[in-house]
């Protein structure tokens, strides 16, 4: 069985519409390559009760939980307090991280707010942050990362090799201009039934040059089944008079 | 009390990393303007059990639930079946929508797959889709929309005026290059405590030209409190030697 995962994005700035989240997509791509199945992603507010409940709910449901956001030095950074409470442990100074941060920031500027970034839930293991030193960490099966994309990505690069990997999820896509979902739907369903070990998706596109069409995507962990299903889809499109191609449509 | 909302993005293509969701951000912005508080957003797979449970859980928790995705003609479009089951009603032909779609597509091309787009849960009221006719709908407090952003946005424009609005959520942002969160954190927390009716967030930015800094954002429904808190933050930044400005930093 492939390992499973969930993402918790913690941040009022996403729910208010101020910020377009790009972390979910990045994590999703890295997990797919590692053969880890992303079951769900939730965006939640900077709210103690909600954070604690969501962490506890999802860490019981999947193999790996990834959180982003809320581990900086300001009053709205409450993730570590909440994760500690979710695990029933104190949030306390992590001496090694304290020293690293003190050295990086300089003792004279290492004020109380900045010291908060050296507090980890007891038992957590820090995850290196080459961008700005303040660490992420793992406790149990919960990986706590920064919200700033550059920092999150660096932390994730350190995390991925430590996870149990599944068979990579392979993907093959056909793009067909002028094709319509309604025309291919019936035959596509038959192909899906013929290859139940694959997951076939149909995604219409409407791009700026009005080159409308459909992208048909096969995903799965069985390479032969993915290739055979993709071949059937290719034949279907050609038989209908379309010219399927593999690249993304031009914008 | 402001009305509350949740978003359910239904789509394997988001969880696989194939597609970057942009619907949550768009809906979040429109809700903020309407004074409707977005409490949570969830991205879930094309899975019957998960869709039904999530719809039932969230429609009980907030005033308005918005779903995107899964209402097209292909086998992976299972949202309407699931929403019908969540409400305990049949998913059946909606005669008015059937006629509209048949007219738009042409009777000779209006096959079984395309007819699926004219099935709505019993009691649902259609939401017009000026882009491709196949309607969204509302049932109870659940608004079911397409996943294609252009179509979703058109549907949402038809929905927003029908919702109960709250006081708009006002926002004021200061961007300060070279400022660091750790330096302002303590005073910022004091400002947050002085204006508890506002929600003050601190967001570091690292842009491509290496012009690092911090964005400090005040949000709230009390205009005077938002303005006063923003003024205090401006003064704080100036006193620390920064030059705060209102615009987004240059990329």
From TrEMBL, chains A, B:
InterPro entries: CinA, FLAD1_M, MoaB/Mog-like_dom_sf, MoaB/Mog_dom. Transmembrane segments: none annotated. Signal peptide: none annotated. It comes from Commensalibacter oyaizuii. This is Molybdopterin-binding protein. Residues 6-166 form the MoaB/Mog domain. SUPFAM superfamilies: Molybdenum cofactor biosynthesis proteins.
């Amino acid at each position: 069985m492939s390992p499973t995962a969930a993402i918790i994005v913690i941040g009022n700035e996403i729910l208010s519409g101020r910020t377009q989240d790009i972390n979910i997509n990045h994590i999703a791509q890295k997990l797919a390559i590692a053969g880890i199945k992303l079951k769900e992603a939730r965006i939640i507010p900077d709210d103690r009760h909600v954070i604690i409940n969501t962490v506890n709910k999802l860490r019981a449901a999947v193999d790996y939980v990834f959180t982003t956001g809320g581990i900086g030095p300001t009053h709205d950074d409450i993730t570590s307090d909440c994760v500690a409470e979710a695990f029933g442990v104190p949030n306390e100074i992590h001496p090694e991280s304290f020293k690293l941060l003190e050295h990086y920031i300089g003792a004279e500027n290492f004020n109380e707010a900045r010291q908060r970034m050296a507090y980890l839930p007891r038992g957590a293991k820090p995850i290196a942050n080459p961008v700005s030193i303040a660490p992420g960490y793992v406790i149990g099966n919960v990986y706590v990362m920064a919200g700033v994309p550059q920092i999150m990505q660096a932390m994730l690069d350190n995390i991925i090799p430590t996870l149990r990997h599944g068979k990579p999820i392979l993907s093959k896509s056909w793009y067909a201009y002028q094709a319509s979902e309604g025309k291919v739907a019936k035959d596509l369903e038959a192909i899906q039934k013929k290859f139940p070990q694959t997951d076939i998706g149909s995604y219409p596109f409407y791009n700026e040059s009005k080159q409308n069409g459909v992208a048909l995507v096969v995903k799965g962990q069985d390479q032969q089944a993915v290739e055979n299903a993709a071949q059937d889809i290719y034949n279907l499109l050609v038989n209908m008079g379309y010219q399927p191609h593999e690249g993304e449509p031009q914008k």
